[in-house]
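Input/output pair, single chain:
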Amino acid sequence: MTIETIHLSEKAKNQLLTLKCKTGIQHWNILCRWAFCASLAEPSTPPDEDIPSDSSVEMAWRTFGGPHESVYMGLLRQRAEQDNFPLNNDNELFYFRLHLHRGISYLSGNTHIKSIATLLQTAL
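Output:
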């Protein structure tokens, strides 16, 4: 595993703050797990973009993944293979951040999410 620390953009930080208020989920890592999975659920490849690391929010990969960090890494690698994105030590974090930030945008832009219950409904 080459991902050690995850840095969020200021835009993503603000979107997560909105999601925290709507859902009552107070931990960045839990919301980020939801966001990552939301992006993986999309059939399209996330757009290749330069995402700044300009916020004060950062977390260790182990904090993001918790006891299931290897599962999240496996999901990332499986999706990269599906998207014909050759992962290596240099671009694993880049590809992860594309998915994470896309997922944060999806969740924050979903007008149906008004509580933790409606967030759970997005998974169904």
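The domain at 5-44+53-122 is CATH 1.10.1220 (Arc Repressor Mutant). Strands lie at 5-7, 58-60.
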